[in-house]
Amino acid sequence: MSVTIYGIKACDTMKKARAWLEAHGVAHAFHDYKSMGVEPAQLAAWARQVGWESLLNRAGTTFRKLPEDAKADLTETKALALMAAQPAMIKRPVLEADGRLVVGFKPEVYARTFGG
């Protein structure tokens, strides 16, 4: 099984998700989209799979600090552009596992994803 987890290295939720994967013996690659970025085409593909609303981290500091006009009247195009420009606005983690996509970390969802 090919597994890649996307996020930001210093994020507490990322640390919990990676620790869960390691504790359950799930080999995975890690992509730090704060340092490595994320391709707009990949964001668009994720949005098609789970919806852009699921990807956008509205609770994070980066989003909350945006000017009101940047947050107003969000569309998929506008939200994807914001996330591409500032990857900290992407909800963490994003987990790709053999074509499946899981956004966020909940141990029970990971257990179902990996059959554990």
TrEMBL record:
SUPFAM superfamilies: Thioredoxin-like. InterPro entries: Arsenate_reductase-like, Thioredoxin-like_sf, Tscrpt_reg_Spx/MgsR. It comes from the Bacteria. Belongs to the ArsC family. This is ArsC family reductase. It comes from Blastochloris sulfoviridis.
